[in-house]
Design the sequence.
């Protein structure tokens, strides 16, 4: 069974290409340090709901879109080992500083999930 970290964040549409470059670098670093898979997706059909939705979850504002991302690992222990290396990788140091990414990190949410159903 696998383990996945999932991320959802609001991205200003004016920053899509700058974010894409950062995501490509981050994905390469995660894979280099052992993640089995790294993917990022941009919203294409995510409408606001009456109670919950992707746009509501990140308090989406005008001129923003939603990004969904994940990294896959062998296990929680593998994830923890990979993430420790990633967080210490100097290629990502600028992204870890305040203002280092082109989105509001306070509206991003994320978490780790263990495999529950796999077909």
Sequence:
């Amino acid at each position: 069974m696998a383990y996945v970290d999932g991320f959802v964040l609001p991205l200003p549409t004016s920053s899509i290409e700058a974010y894409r470059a950062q995501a490509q670098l981050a994905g390469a670093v995660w894979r280099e340090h052992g993640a089995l898979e790294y993917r990022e997706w941009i919203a294409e059909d995510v409408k606001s709901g009456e109670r919950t939705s992707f746009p509501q979850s990140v308090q989406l504002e005008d001129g923003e879109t939603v990004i969904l991302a994940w990294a896959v690992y062998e296990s929680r222990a593998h994830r923890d080992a990979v993430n420790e290396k990633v967080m210490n990788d100097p290629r990502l140091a600028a992204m870890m500083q305040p203002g280092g990414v082109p989105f509001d990190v306070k509206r991003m949410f994320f978490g780790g999930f263990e495999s529950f159903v796999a077909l």
Summary: The longest strand covers residues 3-12. The radius of gyration is 15 Å. The chain has three helices and four strands.
